[in-house]
Amino acid sequence: MLDILDTVDQWIAQNRPVALATVVETWGSAPRGVGSKMAITDDMAMIGSVSGGCVETAVIEQALEILEENQPRLLHFGVSDDTAWEVGLTCGGRISVFVEPLDPTWWQAAAADVRANQPAATVTLLEGSDAGQKALFAGDGQLQYATPALPDADREVFAQAAQSRHRSGRIPVSERSIMVDLHFPRPHLILIGGVHVAMPLQSFARQLGFRVSVIDPRQVFATPERFPDVETILHSYPDKALPQLGLDRNTYIAVLTHDPKIDDKALLTALPSAAPYIGVLSSTRTHEQRVQRLREAGLPEEHLSRIRTPIGLDIRAQTPEEIALCIMAEIVAVRNGAQL
Which of 3, 28, 137, 213 could anchor a disulfide with 93, C-beta 3.0 to 4.6 Å? Predict the structure, then answer.
């Protein structure tokens, strides 16, 4: 949703009719995952993606009819292997896409959650005469919005469905088909050191949907001019700054300065935390010296073993951009549960 947010907001402000297409189910090797979205206006402007090739052409054609009729539809697409590439569904994949006239009130409420980086869930009825009825729930289960025609009994059923799911998807509830569309807080990449490699790294991370913060007590390195798009710049040492930003299972840390006065403080603070990724830009000899210092500082071996160094996947990187790419690739692999 984040990738289409600003454009759809502009269309709503301009009072343009908008249809919203959402992937609700996939089978096989579909190119876009459940929850992926595409918005289409009545003059065929579009933003986002639900698949590719002829599938999206068909979705656009259906969206124009849906806007004219003001009735949502659940669309199904499936192809054989020999034509899969041609229509944008690789390896015989199949997808179901729900297309509906956009409810501006729901959209604005959901957009507020996304912008505030708050967890939320939208539950939508997919089939039948009441298709398109929906409710939006905050992460704690509180109702934030419901379509006026949604009965109170359904609001309770929808709330239970929203709280029971850990991933977005289509599910049967009381002999009806609903979509639970979950929004999770964006992952947070914290860069220790405003060094040269950090600049392309923050760019890659933001393109992949990460929030980015930079910590560096050396103000000359971590400046808004060098990092104009990051969320936070802190000019304090990591042992002070990291607790301010918070360390949880959604936090990824790249330690980049080569300065023990900075890097050691970052590791002493981060390694006992729940952060799933802590990588350090370092040579083997430098790391051996670092581990000895951390061991003497009292860190147990199970914490020391969490350090990923040399940082990043081995792609024989040479330039700062290539090094940033290999770091981001390793972070994505860890996030996706790959065995490295």
Answer: 28
CA dihedral sign of residues 198, 204, 206, 208: negative
CA 157/CA 49 separation, integer angstroms:
30
CA distance 206 to 320: 17
Print pLDDT tens along the chain (340 aa).
Answer: 888 999 999 999 999 999 999 999 987 666 678 999 999 999 999 999 988 666 888 899 999 999 999 999 999 887 544 444 555 555 556 789 999 999 999 999 999 999 999 999 999 999 998 999 999 999 999 999 999 999 998 999 999 999 988 889 999 988 889 999 999 999 999 999 999 999 999 999 999 999 999 999 999 999 999 999 899 999 999 999 999 999 999 999 999 999 999 999 999 999 999 999 999 999 889 999 999 999 999 999 999 999 999 999 999 999 999 999 999 999 999 998 898 8
Instruction: Answer for the pair 157, 143: CB distance below 8 angstroms, yes or no.
Output: no
Task: Determine the Cα–Cα distance for residues 324 and 298; give it in Å rounded to an integer.
Answer: 31
Do 158 and 171 meet the contact criterion of CB atoms below 8 Å apart? no
What lies within 8 Å, CB to CB, of 58 at 6+ separation is: 75, 77
Half-sphere exposure (Cβ direction) of 119: Cα atoms closer than 13 Å: 14
Global pTM reads: 0.79
* Token pair belonging to 337: 């549960």
DSSP labels, 47-99: EE-SS-HHHHHHHHHHHHHHHHHT--EEEEEE--GGGHHHHT-GGG-EEEEEE
Asked if residue 101 lies in contact with residue 72, where contact means CB atoms within 8 angstroms, the answer is yes
- Structural domains in the chain plus CATH codes: 2-183 (no CATH), 188-335 (3.40.50.720)
